[in-house]
From TrEMBL:
Belongs to the carnitine/choline acetyltransferase family. InterPro entries: Carn_acyl_trans, CAT-like_dom_sf, Cho/carn_acyl_trans, Cho/carn_acyl_trans_2, CPT_N. This is CPT1C isoform 2. The chain crosses the membrane at residues 50-75, 104-126. It comes from Pongo abelii. Residues 1-47 form the Carnitine O-palmitoyltransferase N-terminal domain. It is a multi-pass membrane protein. Residues 788-803 have a biased composition (Polar residues). The lineage of its organism: Eukaryota, Metazoa, Chordata, Craniata, Vertebrata. Residues 772-803 are annotated as: Disordered.
Amino acid sequence: MAEAHQAVGFRPSLTSDGAEVELSAPVLQEIYLSGLRSWKRHLSRFWNDFLTGVFPASPLSWLFLFSAIQLAWFLQLDPSLGLMEKIKELLPDWGGQHHGLRGVLAAVLFASCLWGALIFTLHVALRLLLSYHGWLLEPHGAMSSPTKTWLALVRIFSGRHPMLFSYQRSLPRQPVPSVQDTVRKYLESVRPVLSDEDFDWTAVLAQEFLRLQASLLQWYLRLKSWWASNYVSDWWEEFVYLRSRNPLMVNSNYYMMDFLYVTPTPLQAARAGNAVHALLLYRHRLNRQEIPPTLLMGMRPLCSAQYEKIFNTTRIPGVQKDYIRHLHDSQHVAVFHRGRFFRMGTHSRNSLLSPRALEQQFQRILDDPSPACPHEEHLAALTAAPRGTWAQVRTSLKTQAAEALEAVEGAAFFVSLDAEPAGLTREDPAASLDAYAHALLAGRGHDRWFDKSFTLIVFSNGKLGLSVEHSWADCPISGHMWEFTLATECFQLGYSTDGHCKGHPDPTLPQPQRLQWDLPDQIHSSISLALRGAKILSENVDCHVFPFSLFGKSFIRRCHLSSDSFIQIALQLAHFRDRGQFCLTYESAMTRLFLEGRTETVRSCTREACTFVRAMEDKEKTDPQCLALFRVAVDKHQALLKAAMSGQGVDRHLFALYIVSRFLHLQSPFLTQVHSEQWQLSTSQIPVQQMHLFDVHNYPDYVSSGGGFGPADDHGYGVSYIFMGDDMITFHISSKKSSTKTDSHRLGQHIEDALLDVASLFQAGQHFKRRFRGSGKENSRHRCGFLSRQTGASKASMTSTDF
């Protein structure tokens, strides 16, 4: 989501105070360290790796094999074909009385070797099977005979009841694409946005790169791909995120919203108690690997490595680069309320506190009348400051207030109890949603600890939200956790009729611990400067959220089209109408088909999309002509998306080539130009991954409304969208108020118009436009998307408190 901003900014992130930092380590040493980090990660989770490493077998399967060998031996059969006799001969001779023991040991060794060989064979076979990506390239809804055969074999070798990390050893490594193919695809992607002169010059630079430097840089990447777990992901984390010196707020973090139309309880402490309990239940399942791995088509597993750092994780600032600190466990959360920090325990005698007990503790914090100490109220603004500045201040803070700092950084996660309400309101639905998004993305600049892996935000009216730091994982991981949290706290834990958590309080629990900060005088000015910078950054963000309810995924499915491609091409039309020109468009796609894969860029502004947009703006073009061009554009987008998912994208390969060139101190004008590009339109779809958790038919309003992120460019837009059920799409748009070229509300209107214009190309969608125009455009979004949903909310058995 927010990664596009970081991707654009990673090159400047290699500089400090205006002076360029040289990467002095030899490239071979860096490749060696990458592999070493991979092996250390494997060793740190040895027991989990053992349990998952023998999957699809289990330790009981060894016992079964050993018993079978012993039974055969008892029946005077030798399944080892003489190998056990040779093993017995190699064992020490302990005398005749231990002759039977030698036989048992020989059977144990033979069974273990045979068991290991069988497991290794299963892993190799499954890895070879998972390396097949032909199923991605097939038309939607069609399946060839090879793919059916492949699915059957994957089902045979995959075993039953996998744990979260069961497939990690069987996932293939991300391939290094052909450099010639990557350059060709890159030139194709920039052709629509460059003039003839600029394109010719770029093509010359590309040919020079292929002739002089490409083969050498490619050789190092191939070497790394064989040695490290992933040839790009660790460098992506370091150079795009951890070396960035920009503030995390708006630039790197992203947010997730609560249910759009309902709030299960208006009690702030109760909502916080249930939500924290649900989050810690998720952590418990995560630690025990009880969360099933994500499977595409119900069969193809995705990499689960990013799940490891959801909890107990903090991004620690450094002068040159940050690092991620992850603890094995933490039994408390850090809570912020009215400028004060608290350490609140979440466990009692090694068991998780009940939701009612957690509510009691949160209520004690809300009722605490003590005022904030001088400068304590704005202390968290330091986490929204430039990273180098915060790193220097943190050194003093760690000396003067080590215990309080450790309580925050060592917490499972951060909780902010906001004093203001948030969410959709009847009086002004448009403004209230925009303010809600802004509060989640930036807050007031000093009420979020942006270094934590995520901050749970609970507003005074019981509305929830999440602010997520981006370096440790990508949106689908936090989204998976958030879906579980909303479904669990609402449908499984539930609330009593008076709005409190179910159960009884525990008066024996100690009061939450108020953290004491001994802030030296030299830090006071730094806090004031950080707060001023955070407020400027926050006030400059223009957020706009709107639910589009005229049609959704079900209509697009009836048109036999990909829902994501439909939206992406419509966004091209909307942006062209907004700016009068085409631009490079960033769409995030996952590469978790591969071990430790993260994301790839889909360059959605294609020649086919541009041709369609021009046709839509040409009054002489008929609807059938535009529809034919639209289908061609959708097919092209689908091809790019599938190529990105299968490791054949453009941008991560060029990024890794650029990093190698920096290590080798090679100047490449082509790679320099590639990474100086600006993404004026950054987009992302938020997938709903666990629809089984929500009953969208009986409770259509209890679906997460997605989230958003800041714009990637000062004169650009950030657009995310989520399909809520079958008949609604919620859009989250951001831009900079300081830009005279952008306006989030204006783009929102263009998106709505574009969706209706595209839908009207289909016979089944022509009535949408007539209905829309018949009702009048003014406030139509919220009349259709807000008021019509009130009847749906009445179906819910829980109380809606937004109205």
